[in-house]
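Give me the 3D structure for Ubiquitin thioesterase OTU.
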Amino acid sequence: MKIQIRLRAPNGQARLEIDDESAVQDLITLIKAETGLDTFSLKYGYPLKNLDTTQCATVKEMQLRGETIVVAPVERTPASADAKASTASASEPKPFIPKGIEPDETSLEWPEKGGYIVLRVMPDDNSCMFTAFGGAIGLENPSYKLRQQVAEYVLNHPEQYSKAILGDDPIRYTERMKQMDTWGGAIELSILSDIYSIEISSIDVKSLRVDRFGEGKENRVIILYSGIHYDRIAFAMDLSYPVEVDVTKWPTDDDDVLAKALDLAQRLQNLHYYTDTTDFVIKCEICNWIGQGTRDAAKHERETKHSQFGEMIIQ
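Predicted structure for Ubiquitin thioesterase OTU (315 residues):
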């Protein structure tokens, strides 16, 4: 008997028809052909549960009963001495909503793709850039790993990353970058783009400028910069789904996703979801020094090696 199976995947929704006596592997083959994915997990229900296909010989034995199957991409990260990456999703707190912003203001419906472009807010722990990027490429506990890789890359490329470029002696720079309370920025994004051979598109909320690190690469991830903080841009098939089934990598010739991410950044700009770093008052959390803007903060960090700063709100 023929049965209809509804799919929800990163490339949209689809309906498959298959004989219920067909082997489960035949269904997997159909899903691969429909979604263009080679590796994925299958989920169903609410809240989402893993669909275990290993215990079933035929499609009939899966007892789907009209359930929609969610196809969640799984990244296969090659094991290497440099990366030592995990295929597990990033270990990070569940996304939270910024203060003063409503939940429905951090996402935009994308009807053509059957889902939403969403802001995944990173913890405010001085490692937000590493967490935003690392989670997008599927690393577990990304901050420590990426810091080590950046430091190693700098020392292995002394002509490219000299004191003039880094603003500090390379040895001191790498020692500081390995510390979990040191901020990451443009230099580190450029290095990570080279290490992982992926374009990193960083959208500035205030100006809506897109800075591309690693242009010419095949795939991209998108992060959002709000002055002193980085967040991740993702595609969610449903807002109720966990971050583990987010889509966070796209081909660099996919202009639609970048345009949609800019639409979301425009909404956040209207909500003033950014810090004006040119004149904001900043305080060192270590010695209580007070300065103005990122230039003062960078100078204070060079002089004292203090790297924990917070914005002071003047009433």
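The longest strand covers residues 2-9. Let me know if you want a second pass.
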